[in-house]
Amino acid sequence: MSHLEKLTISLGFRGRTSFIDGIHLDNCILSRLPHLHTFVFNIITDFVRSTEHFEPSADHIRRTFIQRGHHADCYIDYHHINMRRCHVYSVPLNMERMRHISHGFPGGTFINVRILSLLDDSHSFEHNFFAQISRSFPLLSRLVVRNTTPQKEKRSHQLVKIDLTVSMYTSIMWNSFFLTSKHVYLVFASFMFNMNT
pLDDT value at position 74? Predict the structure, then answer.
């Protein structure tokens, strides 16, 4: 394995006391791969209990990757008093799947991603979030949405119905669309409307 030249990983960690950053990844994995020249990653550290006095920012986490020659983007969600979540990924991301995007997702363009999951039980997915997702992932074939928090921005039932009807005829072809939400109709209509706006 020490002669590995390309590595693509999608990892999830739960219950740590710190985020996975470029330093940690380099010390534990990458330093053991001296021939590695291509590294693509999608890493989520979830349910992190902060015990440190220093709270790393998304910029700090991002810099730990960039300083080691890896183009990356990152965002951090603060769920409860001391529960954190960090999502860091390669830019550009040359993967067909991206999982567990939350409300904190900063956007970007991901033309290779075909399968996407949205997950956030602490914050609602609002209309603007779905507009951003539809712009960021123009070639989706499968979308999985899990969100139990109701939308704050309620649009009129009639407007949503019109949006849904128009979008159904002009949207991209999906293989599948899965929802786990208390407000399925509004979520679906909001996303469908934004696929072509």
Answer: 95
Domain boundaries, position 157: 96-197
Q: Mark whether 197 and 104 lie in a shared domain.
A: yes
Cα–Cα distance measured from residue 164 to residue 190, given in angstroms and rounded to the nearest whole number: 8
* Structure token pair of residue 15: 């219950």
| Closest C-alpha among 39, 44, 54 to residue 19 | 44
- Entry pTM: 0.76
Question: 10-residue block means of pLDDT along the chain (197 residues)?
Answer: 87 87 89 90 86 78 92 87 85 93 92 91 83 90 83 59 38 50 52 51
d(CA 78, CA 175): 33
pLDDT in the model for residue 47: 82
Pair 136, 78 in one domain = no
Q: Which residues pair with 98 in a beta bridge?
A: 116
Looking at the structure of the chain, the number of domains it has is 2
Residue 44: the pLDDT is 93
Whether residue 100 is found in the same domain as residue 197: yes
